[in-house]
Q: What sequence folds into this?
């Protein structure tokens, strides 16, 4: 959590300067590193939980994951390209408004243009996810040393995606970094205040979580 506070501070301090895609990519790399540390801690907890579950519970979990996979395929793969672009545009607008407030016409034009430059990732992502579910089902047979094999598989999946998925991901992130830089550099004074208030709210929330972690609530007496 302290790493996230440092990142929020760096973002706010950097607002004094013109934003660049490269600078935003660097910020995202720090965010990703902080997230991976949390992910590793969460994985350890999940593996401990997995060791205590019954075979029936494991089977139920895998079934739920496969049902979710089918829901994703039904939701995303049936879209036309025009539907994909429109949903992408709407998502970009929602995200931009969350940090900048009301958008002007020129900013909406930037969002529209960026949405049309995105490559569809749904099919590649779902193919990767389906392969992962097959691999996970095998790992969750929980043969000797299965927990370390899960850790190794998670790391390999993160570090070695398919060339197709990597290409789409890197292209889309490049589009997003460029878009964010354009939006930040075009922000009005009102949007600047909105953004700084948003960052201050994030900072307070993170510091509250950090304090709670240092001082967990006392367990009620029984």
A:
């Amino acid at each position: 959590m302290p790493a996230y506070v440092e990142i929020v501070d760096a973002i706010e301090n950097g607002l004094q300067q013109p934003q660049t895609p490269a600078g935003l990519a660097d910020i995202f790399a720090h965010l990703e590193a902080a997230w991976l540390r949390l992910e590793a801690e969460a994985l350890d907890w999940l593996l401990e939980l997995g060791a205590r579950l019954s075979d029936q519970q494991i089977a139920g979990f895998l079934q739920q994951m496969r049902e979710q996979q089918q829901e994703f395929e039904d939701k995303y793969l049936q879209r036309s390209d025009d539907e994909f672009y429109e949903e992408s545009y709407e998502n970009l607008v929602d995200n931009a408004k969350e940090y900048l407030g009301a958008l002007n016409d020129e900013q909406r034009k930037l969002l529209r243009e960026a949405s049309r430059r995105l490559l569809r990732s749904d099919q590649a992502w779902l193919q990767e996810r389906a392969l992962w579910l097959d691999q996970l089902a095998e790992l969750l047979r929980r043969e000797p040393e299965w927990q370390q094999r899960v850790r190794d598989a998670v790391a390999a999946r993160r570090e070695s995606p398919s060339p197709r998925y990597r290409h789409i991901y890197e292209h889309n992130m490049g589009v997003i970094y460029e878009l964010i830089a354009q939006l930040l550099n075009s922000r009005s004074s009102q949007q600047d205040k909105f953004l700084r208030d948003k960052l201050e709210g994030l900072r307070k929330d993170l510091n509250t979580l950090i304090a709670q972690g240092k001082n967990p609530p006392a367990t009620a007496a029984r």
Remarks:
- The chain has a mean pLDDT of 92.
- The two ends are 32 Å apart (CA to CA).
- The longest helix spans residues 21-52.
